[in-house]
Write a structure and sequence with these properties.
This is Cupin domain-containing protein. It comes from Hymenobacter guriensis. Residues 4-138 form the DUF985 domain. This protein has 158 residues and is mainly beta. The protein is built from three helices and 13 strands, in the order H-E-E-E-E-E-E-E-E-E-E-E-E-E-H-H. A hairpin with a 5-residue loop joins strand 3 and strand 4. The radius of gyration is 15 Å and the shape is globular. The two termini are 30 Å apart.
């Protein structure tokens, strides 16, 4: 299947951070977060990047788990303590690729296909559950100010 076939078959729509997605799960149970907000216990989505697509730097207020399904390896870049951390999701374990990764709450992160061809299909699960109120897309100037040692990386993913 091509990326466009998968987008059609799974009924994916454009995501504000880049790529395509569809929510597949939202728990019926809710909880109160430390800041007094009500959130579903967990949520999950399909997420697909193809070719030159990228997930621009963003952060959310919950932990996020990424699970690789198929396609090309996907690189996730996290900015923590002023240092970028790179995680490669994929199925070539001998090459250091991982089938899943955890993005801690409130961490700036982005993703792309290093080869910039084909596609990667993953799932993302968020706990406490995702709410767009908790989603922050990075602004280039502010992120450059926060991480002045990485201007090229910030420019590439904002």
């Amino acid at each position: 299947m091509t990326a466009q076939d998968i987008i059609r078959q799974l009924h994916l729509a454009p995501h504000p951070e880049g790529g395509y997605y569809r929510e597949t799960y939202r728990s019926a149970q809710t909880l109160e977060t430390a800041d007094g907000q009500t959130r579903h216990v967990s949520t999950a989505i399909y997420y697909l990047l193809e070719n030159e697509d990228k997930s621009h730097f963003h952060r959310i207020k919950s932990d996020e788990l990424w699970f690789f399904h198929q396609g090309q390896a996907l690189e996730i870049i996290l900015l923590t303590d002023g240092q970028p951390t790179r995680i490669v999701l994929g199925s070539n374990f001998a090459n250091g690729e991982l089938p899943q990764a955890v993005i801690p709450a409130n961490t700036w992160f982005a993703a792309h296909l290093p080869q910039r061809t084909s596609y990667a299909l993953v799932s993302c699960a968020v706990a406490p559950g995702f709410d767009f109120v908790d989603f922050e897309l990075a602004e280039r100037a502010a992120l450059t100010h926060e991480f002045p040692q990485w201007p090229e990386l910030v420019e590439q993913f904002t």
